[in-house]
Design a protein that fits this description.
Blueprint: H1 10-33, H2 40-47, H3 51-57, H4 62-84, H5 93-110, H6 112-126, H7 132-158, H8 166-184, H9 200-213
C-alpha cells in the first residue's frame, strides 16, 4: 500500500527521497555499465552521497539495490495488469489485452533503464540458482505470470481464447513483449535504429492479433469492435 507523503514525518520523507535518489543513480549505472561493472563508489558519486550513506540505506550493497530495482519493476507491471484487466463489462477481452500490451510497451519506453536492466541482469541473475537474489527474482517473475494467467484463464472459459495452459500463454506474451521492445530499443543498435520502428498502437494491435488468431488467422484490421468480420 502506498503511503501518502503527508502521513509520514519530514525525516521519513527525506529518507524516502534519498533512497529514491540512490535507486535512480543505480538504474542509470546498471543500465549503462551492467551490474557487475558498476561500483558502489560510482553509485555514491552519481547520487551525490558518501559511500557510507549507501550502506545506511542498503546494508546489502549492490545486490540489495538490484533486488529493490526489480521489486519496483515487478510492482509496476503488476499494477498495469490489474488496471488493464479490471472488471469492466463494456470492455471485451480483445480491448483489455490491447490496453495491457499498450500500457506495458509505453511503460518500458518511458523507463528505458529499467528495461535494459531487465534484459541484461534478470536472466543472468536467475541462472545463478544459489543466489538469494535469483530466488527473489524467480518469485517476482512468477507473480507476474500468475497475475497475467488469471484474465487469460477467464477468457478461455468464456471462449475468447482456445484452451491451453494459461501460464504457458502468459509466458509467451511476456517474452514477446520483451522481444518486441528490445527490437525498438535504441541502445541495442550500434549504427542506427531499425527502419521499421513502430508506434504503441501498432504494436498493441499486432501482438493482440497474434494472441487471438495466431500467425495464420485473420487480421484485427478486418474486425469491427464487436468482433464480427465485415
Amino acid at each position: 500500500m502506498e503511503i501518502s507523503p503527508i502521513s509520514i514525518s519530514r525525516r521519513d520523507r527525506e529518507r524516502l527521497l534519498r533512497r529514491s535518489e540512490i535507486l535512480s543513480a543505480s538504474k542509470i549505472l546498471f543500465a549503462e555499465k551492467g551490474y557487475s561493472e558498476a561500483t558502489l563508489t560510482e553509485i555514491a558519486s552519481r547520487a551525490e552521497f558518501g559511500k557510507g550513506t549507501i550502506y545506511n540505506y542498503f546494508p546489502g550493497g549492490k545486490e540489495e539495490i538490484l533486488v529493490a530495482i526489480f521489486d519496483q519493476l515487478y510492482e509496476s507491471l503488476l499494477k498495469i495488469i490489474s488496471e488493464s484487466f479490471e472488471p469492466d463489462e463494456s470492455l471485451n477481452f480483445r480491448d483489455a489485452m490491447r490496453r495491457f500490451l499498450g500500457r506495458s510497451f509505453d511503460f518500458f519506453v518511458s523507463n528505458i533503464n529499467l528495461f535494459l536492466i531487465l534484459i541484461k541482469e534478470a536472466e543472468r541473475t536467475r541462472l545463478n540458482h544459489h543466489s538469494e537474489t535469483a530466488a527473489r527474482i524467480h518469485v517476482r517473475h512468477d507473480e507476474i505470470i500468475h497475475a497475467l494467467s488469471i484474465p487469460l484463464s477467464t477468457a478461455m472459459k468464456r471462449g475468447d481464447l482456445r484452451k491451453m495452459p494459461p501460464t504457458f500463454l502468459a509466458h509467451m506474451i511476456f517474452l514477446n513483449l520483451k522481444g518486441y521492445h528490445l527490437r525498438q530499443c535504441p541502445q541495442s543498435f550500434v549504427d542506427k535504429a531499425p527502419p521499421d520502428l513502430i508506434e504503441t498502437d501498432q504494436f498493441a494491435d499486432e501482438l493482440t492479433d497474434f494472441i487471438l488468431f495466431g500467425a495464420s488467422g485473420p487480421s484485427l484490421s478486418h474486425l469491427n469492435p464487436g468482433g464480427n468480420q465485415k
